[in-house]
Amino acid sequence: MRDVFFIVGPTATGKSEIAAEVAHEVGAEIVSADAFQIYRGLDLLTAKPDTSTLAKVPHHLIGTMSIFEEMNAQRFRKLASEAISEIHSRGKLAIVVGGSGLYLKALTHGLSVAPAADPDLRARLNELGLADLQDKLRELDPKTEVDFKNRRRVVRAIEICLLSGEPASGQRTSKSKTTHGVFAFRERDDLYERINQRVEEMFENGVIEEVRAAGAIGETASKMIGLGEIRKLIDGKMSILQCVAAIQQCTRRYAKRQLTWFRRQTNFQPLNLSEVNHVEVVKRISQLAKTLEVAQGND
User: Fold this and answer.
1) Domains of the chain (ranges plus CATH)?
2) Best label site of 118, 181, 289, 292, fewest CB within 10 Å?
3) Mean pLDDT, to the nearest integer, of 38-44?
4) pTM for this predicted structure
């Protein structure tokens, strides 16, 4: 990841706004590492950066894919690598910004070579309940770090174990490439307050109409936080107060998982945004990014 600077962290920390100002300051361009902002449409639901933020510097991989297309870490790595190469061809620094851990790890660590899916085996596994799947994975791979609440990932990990005859955790590419960046986070109360406020603003700005107009979407995009709840609201199965509260809770839980993941998986410089004002944050990160440019420019 030569000439690449990372700004990572959980949702609602304010990464997008900070990154745009840093990129403007150092003459860089931004590559988004968000699993859902890459899709066109549903701008409110996916909390895409607003137009003023996007106008500050060129942004890549935001609103570039049809909502029917499927995405995964391998495809993201290819698209992001192409975008980074284009940025470098212009003699500029690339700043990767986002909170999708697996996508970011695909860039910082590369991808492991895992066996292809087996439809028959997957069908048999999908007949089991989540608790049984969790027990099976613990037996096959005691060192696994898979999110046990994510059925799809549990099934895939079991599938890799059974097809390869080895623990899935041992097949991951663990050697990190040289990377530079910051892990931006906030104190829990501060972060949760920002999450709750952002969800409320989504509804004030018309997210219900946005979801209603979207209609059918692809399998990957259908996993967006809040989509299922708003559809229940539209179908009369949930009140608006219940819907807002449910999305706030889901988003807080997601942020908690992100915090845990980044603390375990990255060695980026931690930066507590709750303790530093916005101007100072931009100044500090800009200095780090400029240091990277100077150091690599002398290689």
Assistant:
1) 4-111+174-297 (3.40.50.300), 119-171 (no CATH)
2) 118
3) 96
4) 0.80
* Pair of tokens at residue 38: 């890459």
Measured over the CA atoms of residue 206, residue 212, residue 217 and residue 223, the dihedral's sign is positive
CB 56 within 8 A of CB 30: no
3-state secondary structure of 8: strand
Q: State the DSSP code for 60.
A: E
Are 9 and 185 within 8 A, CB to CB? yes
The tens digit of pLDDT for each residue in 48-73 reads: 999 999 999 999 999 999 999 999 99
Determine how many CB atoms are found less than 10 A away from the CB of residue 2: 11
Q: Residue 158 and residue 150: Cα distance in Å, rounded?
A: 13
DSSP of 157-194, one letter per residue? Answer: HHHHHHHHSS-GGGGS---PPP-EEEEEE--HHHHHHH
Neighbours of 253 (CB within 10 A): 12
